[in-house]
Queue: 3 jobs
Job 1
Amino acid sequence: QFGDIFGDSSPFSSFFGGGGGRRAVRKGSDLRIKLKLNLEDVANGVEKKIKVKRYTSCKSCNGNGSKHGSSLQTCTTCNGTGQLKRVQQTMLGQMVTTNTCHTCNGEGKVVLERCEACFGEGRVLEEDMLSIKIPAGVGEGMQLSMSGKGNVPARGGVAGDLLIMIEEEEHPMLKRDGNNVAYDLMLNFADLALGADVEVPSIGTRVKINIKPGTQAGEVLRLKGKGIKDINGYGVGDQLIYVNVYTPKNLSPEERELLYKIKESQNFQPKAGNEGKGFFAKMKDFFN
């Protein structure tokens, strides 16, 4: 009566004998691989072709493990149900327990003659070429899944999944910061004071930017939309260029004399009120 009260999904249903006769579909094991991507792949998305060794269904026996795919017979132990039921008398009445048939391992059929190609296993280990589409915006440690591209179980069932772990290669000059990318631009004092056109690396290319006269070290320039696409489709990040000044260590006598003259000029003295405009103060102004 428990089956009537709780329905077929109740745990009492199988415990007391209800809901029997259905065999669970077997699923093969999952495969895990690591996939290395460079910054350009991450920013724009990419399609990769990879070789994977996995168990696939045997073509000679159509995956059932029998010779020519037809030498199967219904298991006489369980009469093809794949389950064995045992009835016991208890104080509450009859109790029915269900176990997997030991003769056919729950398959309901037994192999009379084994397939010579797969030795009765119904699957063979093969090297398979798979095409994987990686969306833009993935990151280090992120895991993607391809359903049904894992191992096929022995003698029929559903293939497992292929789990892809993303490894992000470091770019030699650009550094990822979420969906933004950062670049440290080193300039000499003359370029900052006089202004200059300089070329900087960007994702997959190089771009030319203009440094305005009087640009201060520590300023941050922004290239809109030159970052990484958001994986959820919320726009594209930017490229942030951090301006740094290069100070030479070895000066010739002529260069030293020239710098002393520049140092004495009133135009090269810090202006009043700018003493506190350090890096963090400039960053605050930039984001405000």
Job 2
Amino acid sequence: MNENKEPVRKIFYVITKSNWGGAQKYVYDLATGLSMEKRQKQYESLVVFGGTGPLSLKLAEAGIKTISIPNLARDINIFADISSFFRLLSLFKKEKPDIVHINSSKIGGLGGLAARIAGVPRIIFTCHGWPWNEDRNFFSLSIIKFLSWLTVVLAHETIAVSGKDFSDGKHMFWVKNKIVLVHNGIKSPDFRERAESRAYIAALAKNTGVDIGENDFLVGAVGELHRNKAYEYALRAVAILKQKNIPVKLAILGEGEERRFLESLAAKLGIEKDVALAGFVGDAPQYLRAFDALVLSSLKEGLPYIVIEAGSAGLPVVATNVGGVREIIDDMKSGILVQTRKPDEIASALEFMHKNPEKARIFGQNLRQKAEHEFSLGKMIEETIAVYESRTK
């Protein structure tokens, strides 16, 4: 019981995978944020996810209770999905959470239906980028859009992390009053100094056969090696810049299913000595000051944490104009926005930053001001709590 004699509310965060991406960071920040001293007498957090991975390790270190459902995975598998559904249903019936907060499209439908049947009083779904914006055929997109709509119907309220997702969601039939906008927010990372960060990234790159020189224009990318991140176009941009004799090196901090494809592409383009696929790096944002610029080549995003974190580091960014990216970056004021699948535009933007370091520095300064004023972790937590409380009291 807390000081006001109100019962502690149990919140179950549910997410498909225990890797470390934007949605996982979001869940981690909320779960740990509500466990802080001023909130722990009001809320008790537990996180449910598929398999094991960096998220489970980080939550364990933070003292957050977790439950792993082995059959829960991103890809559709009818038997595994049925098993996961009944596991969630049993869990919700037994534990009787006050709030179930589901994240990601796959778990949205399964978790939402299980929570409804179990009679959970408050079901929240967070959209981290609508999946119908992915590169799929018309038939697949039609099914995905219907399932997304069904997820919103099952939830009592849906949080959109960007204005773009909020606007798109509002156009769905019969659910526009169930969608609210809460921007992602960050606590500024404990950045390492540039020299230390540069040395660390250079050491990681050297392990992949890439030497980073003192005068190289070092571009960073951070995120899972997934096709939605479209690193192919960042690699093609590097090849264009190398043809212009610009001393560029690209270090990608992340791991995933696209590794072999990207390694093969780098070799085909003749840039295997210029692109370091450094693998997963824990607390990667701490080392952002190693880079001269950050690149985001994604085909789909919600409101990408890494762009906000780059801003907090004062780092200029070249990013595709997808999802909520334009809500963070003001084109040619705090970064450069480019079209998707346009490596020539990425190359031109990076060349501009390389040849205009003072302008790039101003971009970084402007982005830092916006990150600090508009995208704080405290603001995100308080606005999310308001969503929880709107019908639970």
Job 3
Amino acid sequence: MTGELDALLIRLRAAGERTRLRILYLLGCGELNVKDLTLVLGQSQPRVSRHLKLLSEAKLVERHREGNSVYFRPSQEAAALELTDLIARLLPSGDAVIRNDLSRLEAVRHNRAREAQAYFDGHAGEWDSIRALHIAEDKVEAAMLELAGPGPFPAMLDLGTGTGRVLELFAPKINSGIGVDLSPEMLAVARTKLAEAGLNHCQIRQGNLMNLPYQDHSQDLITLHQVLHFFDNPQPVLNEAARLLAPGGRLLVVDFAPHELEFLREQHAHRRLGFSDAQMRAWLADAGLDVAAHTELHRFGRTPEGNLTVQLWLGASAGAPQPTIDE
């Protein structure tokens, strides 16, 4: 008990300063890096970094590196999270300082959103040309929700998250979610979209899909939406997903059926031109997963290039309930 009392005193001393209270309140609104906080607080980078160091040492905030930036959020340890939630409730939202902080935070996010949108607009033509080849995305998303099941899912991992859309889609069904991608530009888009949607229970992380820093059997739902065709060999990605899947967990894979649209390889960096059901089942089996469900979504009508069929596979670890949907 003495140790818990000492830990609480350390946290209270760390939080008991005007700027650090403001930082804790701001981080409760979403992950921020040092540059974001200097712009909102109007303080120098060394001063803000010093405050963050003290909060980190008291285990009130936690940090993660993403490229050249370091992002901060409230600590997820139960005792620390309870304290930071209490502080956020006690701070008067009508206070002039807090109002100004929130106003500047909105401006920082708006600028970030403009930068993200510029990147997205610059690549929208590429994505639109691919979407035109397959069934409408809302149909794909509806099938994903149905196949995954009603949830709730305590922990979700979206691998190759891109714009973070899959996290948005599943946000009502999950307690916490992490989207992983290698591209800093796509991470910026995803972080902006999730912040605008107020989805503070979803996080964005940079990472290699074949070597993820998460514990074995820690995820209840893992999604791979239009990701595997960028890999020459998808097996290591599926093996890593299977390692992370909790008992009774589910792996939802969405990708194309075999096709002959070579321009996707030449112009859009696709390494594989779709996957057969037999091949995907073999990979999932090698990863130690059963195929609990499989479905195909065909596009009717034909574009000059041809059509793409979208396939969905639900891989289940031992003990997962078996959905009734199948092809």
